[in-house]
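Quick start: what a row looks like.
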Amino acid sequence: MTVLPGSTPARPIPIKARSSYVWLSMGRLDVEDGAFVLVDGEGIRVQIPIGSLTCLFLEPGTVVTHAAVKLAAQVGCLLIWTGDGGVRFYAAGQPGGARSERLLHQARLALDDGLRLAVVRKMYALRFGEDPPAKRSLDQLRGIEASRVKRIYENLAAKHHVRWHGRDYDPRRGGSLGKDLPNICLSAANACLYGVCEAAILAAGYAPSIGFLHTGKARSFVFDIGDLLKFETVAPLAFRIAAEKPDNPERAVRLACRDAFRAGRILQRLVPLIEDVLSVEGLVPPAPAPEAMPIAFDDEEATGDAGHRS
């Protein structure tokens, strides 16, 4: 993409100043006349404010040009490729990753058993509003958390008079999932929450794959952070919408999540929340090693978050 005469190159803005997301399907994403656009089969263009979005969900039927990916990367908008309705997560871009010292700090906490347990205990306290039981191992805390989460789901189902048979989120079991409206709504809601969490993690300069309670997945830390907010945001509205039985539950959930994120100031809270979770034992990200090569040239003053490649 060429820069228009008289204009400045696109640069990222902080996550806290953005809107949450847009879902797109059945069209070609391109850059025309300097604008990020979705072009449908009849050639009708819809402009997308890519620089003011945290992430863009791309469902089946979307085609993305090189120019579109480049512009999304320049402004720090995370592109996420999903299945229909957001049930499957296929891939995501990476507009962050500009600060290696934060990745090293996150890795140090995850590799030390004592520090990792300290992070998990802090997440437990943030999630449930009380300190976890003393002298419990990570596996024991994981079991306690799972039991509490199960009860919360049951209470939400009872509150909204929704039939509940337990959480079933395996997309390979499409038959059972397709008939279970509460799980359809929860999966759609979680997709929205995890998308903005992943964008915030990358923007803050950390790795989505290095988790603490969740491990071994490409989005382990995304699940860690998302679960801290799930039951104050997306889970209650998912059950409420399931009780209403809308014709298009996924769309109803996405709109409700967008409004809930705005009302709860989720985008303003995410990066500070991530920093808080990773602030244990007084440790801070390390300074560059003495033998490290000096910076060849100074970058322009950053305009986005610490992890954005300004």
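That is the whole record. Residues 222 and 302 are 24 Å apart (CA to CA). The longest helix spans residues 181-203.
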